[in-house]
Amino acid sequence: MLRFTPDDAAIVLIDHQVGTCSWIGSITQDELTRNVGVIAQLAARLKMPTALTSSMETNVQGLLMPVIQQALPEAYAARVKRAGIVNAMDDPNFAKSVYALGRRNLIMAGATTDVCAVPPAVTLLEQGYNVKVIVDCCGSPTKIADDIALERLIAAGVSLTTTNAIVSELVHDWSTSAGQAAFSLLAPATAAA
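and the corresponding structure tokens:
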């Protein structure tokens, strides 16, 4: 398994918009918000390059989640606002923003696994990128839709991970400053378990 580090990986978050996330039923809204918030805050604390995109913000999809706006204000200001192209990588402006990250290792999540995450993850994998999708930062309207989306990712060769697993992989050692910054993000979930 190729281990990603903060120095060789980048974060790509796709369509985590308030309206779009409300359509998700395969994970609770609280879990989704918590996990996306952890990843956004981790990206900020570890100064990882990040690309954000939204689709049709002025429609029912709305703005990106407040946890993203608050944790990553510069990336939020630079987000690519797509006009409705489904596969975010088919939007030349978003593709350019991902390529500009300058990293071959991409940690991705899309609000909906089936529509927002699968197409760009597979596209980037086909372009030679190493892609890990954080499955608990995504969801689909139904469990079956999510199950099929995960099967599609696996069949294409995309690596799947979870919030806690990718955080642990990135910090590698809890005793480091990065480890301490990350642990404080996970601690509330750990204490509740």
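(Above: one complete record from the training split.) The mean pLDDT is 95.
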